[in-house]
């Protein structure tokens, strides 16, 4: 079996790496958190002190990192970066939701032939059960090589196209999700102020063809006041920012995404950034709705 190095053991990465360990892959892991590394060691993984040490003997390197800054440091840091220790035929797979510009730069640094951008659709529960959906960009040969490994962590593995196209589709999917969730939060606030029972309204909305399962699930969290982070508002704002940066380069008009990004920025200013995306409802809550979109308004 391929020797795998997995870098980044956050809420998603730890579960993905756990799937690989349980499948029997020889696994070396790295994370800034000693606690996360020790948890994977209980599943048989070897712990490394740096990204460079983790990849030294790897056939495949998978990273799951939160943003461009974290990814750049893990790959390119002068003292600890993984790139300097990669063998000639190592397959590198970047699974974080990152910007198109950084993915392009990283693919050039790693070599197009052996690099895949492979972000995932799904949350922690899907990572835990191996039900993620992969959106893969890169050469066909690298995709075929990676597919059995990715299938250990995901139920569906799509080859979107060349390098960068998986990353672009993931940003688009998150924009679509964020737009729907923002609209749902806004509508629930409106209906409550109109005197319509929100729970009853959501039951009816959920029964219609226009309601997606993901948005209805988020709406349930909104009504339950459950803001425990799965997809945080900070991460969603980052995804919209990366999308809008890419749109600027492509001269693509995204007025709806711009509007949603402004709402997310207000939520961050109100101190909700670390909360789950369901916390968007706090901007439109019926007790505070009159001043919710004022960044300095009451929480």
Please describe what this structure looks like.
It is a single chain. The chain folds into two domains: 4-161, Rossmann fold (3-Layer(aba) Sandwich), CATH 3.40.50; 168-291, N-(1-d-carboxylethyl)-l-norvaline Dehydrogenase, domain 2, CATH 1.10.1040.10. It is built from 13 helices and nine strands. The protein has helices at 13-22, 34-41, 51-55, 68-76, 100-110, 124-129, 140-153, 165-193, 198-206, 213-223, 233-250, 255-269, 281-284, and strands at 4-7, 27-30, 46-47, 60-63, 91-94, 115-117, 120-121, 132-137, 154-161. Strands 3-2-1-4-5-6 form a six-stranded parallel sheet, with helices on both faces. Strand 4, helix 4 (68-76) and strand 5 (91-94) form a beta-alpha-beta unit. Mean pLDDT is 92; it is low at 288-292. It comes from Craterilacuibacter sinensis. Pfam families: NAD_binding_11, NAD_binding_2. Residues 164-283 form the 3-hydroxyisobutyrate dehydrogenase-like NAD-binding domain.
Taking the alpha carbons of the first and last residues, their distance comes to: 52 Å
Shape: globular
SSE order, one letter for each helix or strand: EHEHEHEHEHEEHEHEHHHHHH
Q: Structural class from helices and strands?
A: alpha/beta
- The value of Rg in angstroms is 20 Å
CATH topology of the largest domain: Rossmann fold
Question: Class of the largest domain in CATH?
Answer: Alpha Beta
Mean pLDDT equals 92
Count of all domains: 2
Q: Provide the low-confidence segments as ranges.
A: 288-292
Give the amount of beta strand, in percent. Answer: 5-15%
The CATH architecture of the largest domain would be 3-Layer(aba) Sandwich
Spatial ordering of strands, largest sheet: 3-2-1-4-5-6
Number of helices: 13
Estimate percent helicity.
40-55%
CATH superfamily of the largest domain: NAD(P)-binding Rossmann-like Domain
| Biggest beta-sheet profile | 6 strands, parallel
Q: Tally of extended strands?
A: 9
GO molecular function: NAD binding; NADP binding; oxidoreductase activity
Pfam family, one: NAD_binding_2
InterPro entries: 3-OH-isobutyrate_DH-rel_CS, 6-PGluconate_DH-like_C_sf, 6PGD_dom2, 6PGDH_NADP-bd, HIBADH-like_NADP-bd, HIBADH-related, HIBADH-related_NP60_sf, NAD(P)-bd_dom_sf
Organism: Craterilacuibacter sinensis
């Amino acid at each position: 079996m391929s020797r795998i190095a997995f870098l980044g053991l956050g809420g998603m990465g730890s579960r993905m790496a756990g799937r690989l360990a349980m499948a029997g892959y020889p696994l070396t892991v790295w994370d800034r958190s000693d606690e996360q590394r020790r948890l994977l060691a209980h599943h048989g993984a070897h712990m490394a002190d740096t990204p460079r040490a983790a990849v030294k003997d790897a056939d495949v390197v998978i990273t799951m990192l939160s943003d461009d800054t974290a990814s750049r440091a893990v790959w390119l840091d002068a003292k600890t970066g993984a790139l300097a220790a990669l063998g000639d035929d190592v397959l590198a797979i970047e699974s974080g939701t990152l910007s198109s510009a950084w993915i392009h730069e990283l693919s050039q640094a790693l070599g197009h032939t052996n690099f895949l951008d492979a972000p995932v659709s799904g949350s922690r529960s899907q990572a835990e059960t191996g039900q993620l959906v992969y959106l893969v960009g890169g050469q066909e040969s690298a995709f075929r090589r990676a597919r059995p490994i990715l299938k250990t962590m995901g139920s569906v593995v799509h080859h979107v196209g060349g390098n960068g196209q998986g990353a672009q589709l993931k940003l688009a999917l998150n924009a679509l999700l964020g737009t729907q969730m923002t609209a749902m939060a806004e509508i629930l606030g409106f209906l409550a102020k109109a005197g319509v029972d929100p729970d009853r309204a959501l039951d009816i909305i959920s029964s219609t063809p226009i309601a997606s399962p993901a948005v209805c699930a988020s709406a349930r969290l909104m009504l339950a006041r459950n803001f425990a982070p799965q997809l945080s508002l900070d991460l969603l704002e980052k995804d919209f920012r990366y999308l809008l940066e890419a749109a600027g380069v492509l001269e693509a008009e995204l007025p709806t995404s711009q509007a949603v990004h402004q709402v997310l920025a207000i939520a961050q200013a109100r101190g909700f950034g670390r909360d789950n995306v369901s916390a968007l409802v706090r901007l439109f809550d019926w007790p505070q709705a009159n001043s919710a979109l004022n960044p300095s308004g009451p929480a």
